[in-house]
Specification:
alpha/beta, Glycerol-3-phosphate (1)-acyltransferase, globular, 7 strands, 35% helix
């Protein structure tokens, strides 16, 4: 995965097991989080004047999953800035491990926008990332995920992976689709800083209850729920559909064969 932020257990930035006290409730109640969120929201709204639509659709309390398209590094700043309630997402643990003044500034910035540190990995690490998200939802918080798994480099909307649907079906949390427009112009891949003369649009859609598709243990239910979520995101973002998963070209014969075989992309 090339994205800086985690999306879901499949193709996402998963977590390394951490001590229980570090994996419980995040710092959303702390001074840094509350002060930083207010400051960043105020500055971003003054500087970028984002167009924010559909906030009336966002539940004001209780667990909720924001499922968004993914175009830029600043997507995970745009969503917390625009949302009418605190939002949390998973981010690379390296952002929290820097030393010195720069490391402290980076760490506190990510804490301020609701980021939860996780380590890259696979297998058990991915399950740990999912467990962190489930803990947040069980505590009544909101989490933001990117079903595409990584940023779209060509602006198209890629096929969603089923981790977001699994989380929704497992937790019972409603899914609020989010359409981001213009974040890739505001901060293209490779740019060190956002452009100040670009406006972005954040659109929140009506909450989706995916429980009618079946249990989380059903691969068919996860796939149908994911497709419903992605259709809602597409309606909000207006992107061209890629029709495939967003992943690097297969390397080697074995990988090409594995991708050609029918299986669920989780």
């Amino acid at each position: 995965m090339n994205s800086e932020h985690a999306a879901a257990p499949e193709g996402a930035t998963p977590a390394q097991p951490e001590p229980d006290e570090e994996r419980s409730t995040p710092k959303q109640a702390g001074f840094i989080y509350n002060f930083g969120r207010s400051l960043i929201r105020s500055l971003a709204r003054v500087i970028y004047r984002p167009r924010i639509e559909g906030t009336e659709h966002v539940p004001t309390d209780g667990p909720v999953i924001f499922a968004s398209n993914h175009l830029s590094f600043i997507d995970s700043i745009a969503i917390p800035v625009a949302a009418p309630r605190p939002v949390h997402f998973l981010a690379k643990s390296t952002y929290f491990e820097g030393t010195g003044l720069k490391g402290s500034i980076v760490r506190e910035f990510f804490v301020s926008i609701g980021a939860i540190p996780v380590r890259r990995g696979a297998g058990q690490a991915a399950l740990d990332a999912l467990d962190q998200q489930k803990q947040l939802l069980e505590a009544g918080h909101a989490v933001a995920l990117y079903p595409e798994g990584t940023r779209s480099l060509d602006g198209r909307l890629y096929k969603g992976r089923t981790g977001v649907a699994f989380l929704a079906l497992e937790s019972g949390a409603p899914v609020v689709p989010v359409g981001l427009i213009g974040t890739d112009d505001a901060m293209p891949k490779g740019a060190k800083f956002p452009r100040l003369n670009k406006r972005i649009t954040v659109r929140f859609g009506a909450p989706i209850d995916v429980s009618h598709h079946g249990p989380a243990t059903s691969g068919r239910a996860r796939r149908l729920a994911t497709d419903e979520i992605m259709a809602a995101i597409h309606e909000l973002s207006g992107q061209e559909l890629a029709g495939v998963y967003n992943e690097a070209p297969a390397q080697g014969t074995v990988e090409k064969i594995k991708r050609a075989l029918p299986h669920e992309r989780r």
